[in-house]
Design a protein that fits this description.
Blueprint (H helix, E strand, L loop, with lengths): L5 H15 L5 H41 L2 H32 L1 H14 L8 H16 L8 H9 L1 H4 L7 H13 L3 H33 L7 H32 L17 H7 L2 H12 L9 H19 L3 H27 L2 H29 L2 H9 L9
């Protein structure tokens, strides 16, 4: 946990924030922020992690300045290739090539590791998504960032670098300009409060829930049904507190710098339908998937069948984005299928004229209950291999051993 590490809390944050809050001019504060970004990234990523963001960022900045759609598409392809290579090459070699012939996967993996040894660069999923967004918008006619300093701050802004929110440069740059000109006491107080909320969510609630769930799920058969359902609910609350707590930490730290980042979670467990849940959950990521994957595939404009296929593709990529493992892919396909079923059911209710009546009488409470159960089953797929997820699901409905 980077934001709760000793180096960050006792050294970097006090020194950097104390220096940043001094009454500097606008330009000096920007350079201080860039220096802080570089120190933060170099400490947690090392030289091997700094090089990819520097190279991809410089290439993205240069190609976008041309404003030519062809060059922007080239930059998008390079960023996608870098993300796939760094994050998924081992998965592809071991799971896909290895399934065809064991030596093929080993050969390709050894070759790639000689080129680029080590782990994937820090936050590559986030900064490549931001670079792709930037190139897409410039390719569509938006104005590029002319200042190398502003682009570097957009690319390496340390509060949002590790776990988002996924920034959009049209929103971020005005907020950055405002924050570097003046940081008020209200900004610092609001940021500290938000940071404290994030600590409670992540370190107090999420981490303790994770330990409790890990203890319980290995011996779930020994507990009565009501305790099994508590574990089921605890898994969902653990991931919400973990993800939203990290977002609170990032948003709070940015606010202490005078920069307002977009909200990432909007009470998702109050959603009464699956599509509403995804409008409330990890908003910056799902918005990115919608705008740069789902809609370019055709969105919902080409009929119900194509809408379901597009949703499946988009959410399979969303699942794979979370990690290079089959359970993440299955989780994405599961939610894509759920959204397709939701769309089909809505169309059916509209045709028979039941939707308005159902909406008024029982649609919302029933919709909330089924949505939360569907999401909870998805968290089992997210956390566990399929056999263990199936075992835990069965144990919610039967006493004793699962079938």
């Amino acid at each position: 946990m980077i934001f709760l590490s000793t180096w960050f809390l006792l050294l970097f944050a006090p020194c950097f924030l104390g220096l940043y809050w001094l009454p500097w001019g606008h330009g000096v504060r920007k350079w201080l922020l860039l220096g802080g970004n570089l120190v933060f990234h170099a400490h947690f990523a090392g030289p091997a992690g700094v090089a990819p963001i520097a190279l991809l960022g410089g290439l993205t900045f240069a190609l976008a300045l041309s404003r030519r759609p062809g060059w922007c598409r080239t930059g998008i392809a390079i960023n996608v290739a870098a993300l796939v290579f760094y994050k998924y090459v081992r998965f592809f070699c071991e799971e896909l090539l290895g399934s065809l012939h064991s030596s093929w996967g080993e050969t390709v993996l050894k070759t790639t590791q000689t080129w680029f040894p080590g782990d994937p660069p820090l936050a590559i999923s986030f900064f490549t998504f931001e670079f792709i967004h930037y190139l897409v918008e410039v390719g569509r006619g938006a104005q590029p960032i002319r200042s190398p300093l502003d682009f570097a701050l957009f690319a390496t802004f340390w509060p949002a670098l590790v776990a988002g929110p996924v920034k959009r440069y049209g929103q971020f740059l005005p907020a950055l300009e405002l924050g570097t000109r003046q940081v008020g006491a209200c900004d610092v107080a609001a940021g500290l409060a938000r940071f404290a909320i994030g600590i409670v969510k992540k370190a107090v609630i999420a981490d303790n829930l994770a330990a409790w769930v890990q203890f319980m799920d290995q011996r779930l058969e020994a507990y009565p049904l009501w305790e099994r359902w508590l574990v089921f609910l605890g898994i969902g609350w653990r991931i919400f507190m973990d993800f939203s707590g990290y977002s609170d930490l990032a948003i709070g730290l940015a606010r202490m710098l005078g920069v307002t980042l977009p909200e990432n979670f909007c009470r998702p467990y109050l959603a009464w339908s699956l599509d509403e849940f995804w409008r409330r959950w990890h908003v910056s990521l799902t918005g990115w998937i919608r705008d740069y994957v789902y809609i370019p595939l055709g969105g919902s404009r080409l009929g119900l069948g194509r809408r379901i296929v597009n949703g499946w593709i988009a959410f399979a990529l969303c699942g794979l984005w979370h990690g290079a493992a089959w359970n993440f892919v299955l989780w994405g396909l599961y939610h894509g299928a759920g959204l397709g079923l939701t769309s089909a059911l809505r169309c059916l209710l509209d045709r028979v004229g039941w939707r308005r009546k159902a909406h008024a009488i029982w649609w919302r409470p029933l919709g909330w209950a089924t949505t939360m159960f569907f999401v909870g089953v998805g968290w089992l797929l997210f956390f566990y291999p399929l056999p263990q997820a199936w075992r835990m699901l069965c144990l919610l409905f039967v006493n004793g051993e699962a079938v």
